[in-house]
## 1
Amino acid sequence: MIKIVAAVLALFLAANPAFAQQRLLNIFNWSDYIDARLIDEFSKETGIRVTYDTYDSNEVLETKLLAGRSGYDLVVPSGTFLQRQIEAGLLQPIDRSKLRNSGAIWAQIDRRLATYDPGNRYAINYAWFTTGIAYDVAKAKARLGGQQITSWDIIFKPENLRKFADCGVYVLDSPEDIFAIALAYLGLNPDSKSQTDIAKASALLQKVRGSIRKFHSSEYINALANGDICLAIGWSGDTLQARSRAREARNGVEIEYVIPKEGTLMSLDNIAIPKDAANVVEAYAFIDFILRPENAARNTTVTNFANGVEASKGMLPAEVQTNPLIYPDDATMKRLFAVRPADRQTQRIITREWTRIKSGR
Ligand code: N2P
């Protein structure tokens, strides 16, 4: 009897999905990082309702994960943060055999990711990118004449940066990026965890602090596009989005992005599932959806961030596929460096120095 009732109920629910329990998925991703239409298409295809929240700093994500019960089923930490979160037991392994599209994962990117996630057990690359210099072409020309911006000198020589103070300079609120770049500029190891080296990088930043209007990791996109600022240290895709927004607005603002000749940081952002995620099956479904080359290609086309699905590259519009600022050529790749997570004590020193730099003390 009970079996019959259960069967009738199952039939009823299958015929009336409104009575079935709504499947949910809570995603926490970086802002300006997706072709938003994909979220609706995923919901239509799977019946899974998605709540999509955004952040613009690894520190914000980490604070939520450390507090526990973040409520999120998918998060996208960058490499070093991912490694720390794996070590702290905040994430759960991803069983790739359960992903229909795991074959689409780009082996070369997966190998880079393995430095943070040994054995590729906990994460799948979502996007990868560089940190560089974005500037307003006309305003730079007015200040530099014919001199091109090709070097970190424009940021770290106080007499250079001062020329841009009046038209607005923003810097990412990301100590990992900025310390690595400052260390490399000084000829030191960008991955140095030495207290003396960090103090030198900090002193370098303090010297130019007076010319920096704001430390922020997402507002610079619109600020550049609107002409509210003229120079920024930003992430590759974001600065190219600023360029597109300005062109769409036909406001006469032209934005350029450069990977300085001294080299820069290359980072990876990666999809992971928090340990206490409530909707794991749904999280896998979304990862599979994003791994479809045509979907990954749409993300890259909209965001200008390269993704971790090799087959998607051939599906990109030619100007994206061949853009060396999105997919750097081999010579540029050789100038890119990566960093490892700092130990807890170094982390504390960096945080303290960063707070001092931001507050100009
Ligand atoms: C997206 C920025 C992602 C790059 N707007 C930094 N993780």
## 2
Amino acid sequence: MNASALARYRMYIDGQWVEAASGEHFQSDNPYTGKPWALIPRGGKADAERAVQAARKAFTSGEWPKLNATRRGALLRRLGDLIGEKSKALAEIEVRDNGKLYAEMGAQTAYMAQWYYYYGGLADKIEGHVIPSDKPDTFNYTRHEPLGVVAAIIPWNSPLLLLAWKLAPALAAGNTVVVKPSEFTSASTLEFMKLVEQAGFPPGVVNVVTGFGAEVGTPLVEHPLVAKIAFTGSDATGQRIYEAAARGLKRVSMELGGKSPNIVFDDAHLDNAVKGVISGIFAATGQTCIAGSRLLVQRTIHDRFVEKLVAFARTAKMGDPMSLDTQVGPVTNPPQFEKILRYIDIAKGEGATPVLGGARATRPECGGGWFVEPTIFTGVSNAMRIAQEEVFGPVLAVIPFEDEEEAIAIGNDVVYGLAAGVWTQSMRRSLMMAERLQAGTVWVNTYRAVSYLSPFGGYKRSGIGRESGQEMIKEYLQTKSVWISTATEVPNPFILR
Ligand code: NAI
Ligand code: MG
């Protein structure tokens, strides 16, 4: 395809649609065809600077700081309505750019409106306290105030949803935002800015810079006027950003993936457990932070369960992610594709047995895209790299266990702690496992459920802070304590009051 036939996007800064200062672009590919389809501005330091200045100006002057919280909430709810109207078109762009199934992305873009409704509703329910004073003639109260400019740095697996998790609470709290989408999936965020504009957010309140992490991400993170970084992505990049944030004493919230155990006991409803394990690792082609990439299965049912699982997974339909009956789509980008194949080789080298898949998919329905066969390894020990490191692909490591104690020990024996699944019909076991697993989310007899109502985030190296739910809006606020004296005279000035 020649460059003139590609869709051309612009960045959104200070309410304007702009090219990168350099005038350069880069191509974004369609994972199903393996071919470029869009041109995205290649932003750099000058663009990050411009966006942060715009966001700072919008935070301190103009309309935004004067809007009361109810009006801010109304803008967010209007944005939610617009998402509802455009969710199908947004989903199509997501699919074209990241290759995830339309069946999933269509539902996800529609559901995403709920974050804007929820935090829109919460905006004017953020209340300070009057503190009971222990001192005479004083009145002391708290205010919850926004932080300033928030940088939202987004990965490629669920671009608009993960943006909603950050943007909705950040705006509800009164901050302004600079968004940096992934270089692999920038188009949907730029398209979404049309709705932000239409909803009536003042210029500079939401800005988008596009480009590569090192070129536009780093200057954004290091910018002294950025007060907080909200990040989802790899733990290596998260650590780098955390270090930079520490130098600037900035706040962070981070969601950094995992190696989540999906634990099947011999008293489980096995057919349901099979579906739960499949949804944990083959849905979204395994490219999800909550992937249940370690199957811990009780030894007494190991062979029977693996047989059922393989039989079910074998039927998974691969192909065009736009077709509603496709179940496993392509991998989003070539580096990720290579990484998955590398991990498959690592697992084989470690002595794990591929009982399903274990290679690039060459089925005719996979066209020219980056497809990997759904892959299941048995004979995995928890010390192997395939059991410890995030693959972010359709690759499942099966590890047997004897009893509850061993399931807990293996389940917790990773550096991550984002999620865990438990399959059992015992109430006692459900509650006990939910208590003892070190994970920010535990699902019992279900997997991959998330909601705007429920806090989401990681234990251990899976992250810092939470997203969604009522409490987490505090991560976008700071508390001010205000003291007012009602005394008629100022007492001895040389002692602490
Ligand atoms: P990444 O973590 O490097 O990228 C995430 C975002 O951070 C992108 O927007 C990227 O441009 C930006 N970024 C990168 N370096 C930066 C820097 N120094 N300063 C500021 N921003 C920066 O993820 P990548 O390279 O796309 O994927 C690598 C691996 O990360 C995957 O193989 C997967 O294992 C994991 N991953 C985890 C995700 C999750 O949801 N936890 C999502 C996507 C990837
Ligand atoms: Mg792409």
